[in-house]
Amino acid sequence: MFFIEVILPLSLAKTFTYRVSEAEFHFIKKGMRVVVPFGKSKMYTALVLSVHQNAPTLYEAKEIHQIIDEKPIATEIQIKHWLWIADYYMCGIGDVYRGAFPTGLLLESETIISHKAGVVVNDSELSDDEFLIYEALQHQSSLKVQDIISILNKKNIIPILQKMISKDIIFLEEEIKESYKPKLVRYVKLHSKYETDEGLNNLLEVLKNANKQKEIVLAFFQLQASEKKPVTVKKLVEISNTSATIVKALIEKEILEEYFLQHDRVSFKGETTDKELLLSTAQENAFNGIKNSFFEKDVSLLHGVTSSGKTEIYIKLIEEYLQSGKQVLYLLPEIALTTQLVSRLRLHFGNKVAVFHSKYSNNERVEVWKQTLENSEKAQIVIGARSALFLPFANLGLLIVDEEHEQTFKQTDPAPRYHARDAAVVLANYHKAKVLLGSATPSIETYYNTQAGKYGLVSLSERYNNVRMPEIVLVDLKDKHFRKRMTGHFSDLLIEEIAEALSLGEQIILFQNRRGYSPVIECITCGHVPHCQQCDVSLTFHKNKNQLRCHYCGYAIAKPTHCHSCSSIDMTTKGFGTEQIEQELAALFPNAKTARMDQDTTRGKFGFEKIIDTFKNREVDILVGTQMLAKGLDFDNVSLVGIMNADNMLHHPDFRAFERSYQMMTQVAGRAGRAEKQGKVVIQTYNPNHNTIQQVTNHNYAGMYKEQLYDRQIYKYPPYFRIIKLTLKHRDFEKLKEGSMWLYQVLSQNLAMPVLGPEEPAVSRIRNEYIRTILVKIPHNLHLGNTKKTIQKMLNSFEAVPQYRAVKTAVNVDFY
Ligand code: ADP
Ligand code: ZN
Ligand code: ZN
């Protein structure tokens, strides 16, 4: 008897045994996919872990349906890493498998397949089966894989479907819903009829009497020669100093030809810039420092102030790893930042840069998957957000985690709840690769690791090109209100500074950590505040839609005209958000052009890039935004940054609140300053003497670190204690209360360490489910693995109690 052990893409910790024939037994290898039946009628794409001859004792092994792959598409190291993630973050290996693979490679009976309107296919190019599937989808716009199986009356169709997906004949339904609209940039090239020498002569003839047009064509040739990359219409208009209409005339005359490319996927012809990147002395020292530290340490932190030119150092380092034939993974906290970075990297590395994006289509993700597996030239450098960590790297040499302090590196839901930075360190270890963490405001944990000698540390304390660190000015809001020097939320000082910057043609960023017009509407008569029906939060007022909205579940109602509790019509707004700031600006500076960047204005896939572009192109004078502004953007004309209210960040009920406030303010402040002029940052606060605000003002990272570290030790938090957070959810309040108390008690009886809770979190009900949390604090001298085993055992007994069976539990290791 012959068997295989597989992982199913389900939230299960177990592996499963299936029967195979002797021939299959000899063919199948670890890392190949097979289609297997599961339960009564389901079918899944499973991943092979091993082949063996031990029949399962608890159940009769079923036979597999078929083998999908000819050779493994997951690597040995990758699977080892997944197992580590499942073990460390206390989740099922199935959770990791499901999260790692592009869904197009994981078809199952429930997957919904669609046909996209407008896609026309030549029937003669389809096989019989393909034709039947194609035809079925003409009658019904979407079908489950299961339905297709019945239609064709055969089980083994997954490879057929996969082939059709890769040929863009059919699609996964989730993809169509999420339809991806890449940003297309308009380019021009010489019309093909003029490409030859003879053509060129004709061209000169054609243009003889059209001077303006000739100028553009000459400018086009110049651009092409000097930049060695595709020429955008925008650039051409800029350089030749003409209007887009004349370019249009040339296109109509068929002298130029227009074409469109997705901006972050522009393909270059060969190497793109001959200009060698020259590092400043400080950068050179940091670069050598990193290389030296890699002799001794596998992980190094580049602590470089904002605008110190960390990216250029990464580029130099990447060059060296590419030369030795290694792959490089570059992790970013936010995919919205990739466009800027990809353009920068493609300038140096041309087509060797691949992007792995959850927003790209399945086919594109599958392509990058295969390229990394085959160690292709085209994916020597992979840029991506945290999930890029799951790609099948063949020969990884360097991992860069930029803005390593960002909390978006930690996945919260669903499992695996992993931290990409920490998981990157483990992956690097398996590949014998190096890790470079970069930040202007390192996380306490990472900096602690450098101080403990675990990670190397390289500091870069000056900005590139002699740009000075911004000057930070504090405005005491209490005093300003008292002396009536406030207009709305703007102090007289901030107004003056904005006026001055505007008069000099400089740009301004205003930071407000809340979106919406003002967070809540309150009844003046009875104090009633409208709340979400399904969540335990007040609704946020959005003025432009005249709506109250829940930021947790999306629930929305029209702004009430009277109080729902006492019917009074005296309603007032409390607190303030980005929308209100923008409106006040319009009244204060009617001639300034403003834009807003928050979750509401960047909702479309490329909304973020659009706003960034208009600001970069100086079409906007003042940009108002939330923390999205704090993420490593590079602007060259911003001289003033205003932080509207520093206090709401400081007062978050979270042990990381001060660390985060420091990081956020320092990062936003870092957008100010240019070569010729020191930037200025105005921070408005009711607590100008607060330690954290003083530390930001004095660029005193060391002071912040020392103070926070002290608190963390006293109050038993990381890096001294590891934290595991258990979250329990149920629709029945009483049952949840009882259940969480039960779990809390068994945990505290069985663990010799602090167990806190059960606590009602600040938002204690979301989408009608009540929430309780329990925190376990594990001191570093105790064995982490054993503690987790105990916790898992307690969770298992909890789930075995009949009345708690329906209570949902989630485990978050190293909770962020
Ligand atoms: P950081 O990531 O450290 O905040 P950046 O890498 O964005 O800083 O660099 C800040 C600015 O300085 C960017 O516009 C970048 O292009 C420029 N810059 C940095 N180093 C160099 C260099 N060696 N040569 C040319 N430009 C550089
Ligand atoms: Zn009322
Ligand atoms: Zn809600």
Automatic annotation (TrEMBL):
Keyword DNA-binding: yes
Listed EC numbers: 5.6.2.4
UniProt keyword annotations, A-Z: ATP-binding, DNA replication, DNA-binding, Helicase, Hydrolase, Isomerase, Metal-binding, Nucleotide-binding, Primosome, Zinc
Domain (Helicase C-terminal): residue spans on this chain: 547-713
CDD domains: DEXHc_priA, SF2_C_priA
All residue ranges annotated as the Helicase ATP-binding domain in the record: 291-460
Protein name stated in the entry: Replication restart protein PriA
Organism: Flavobacterium procerum
Gene it is expressed from: priA
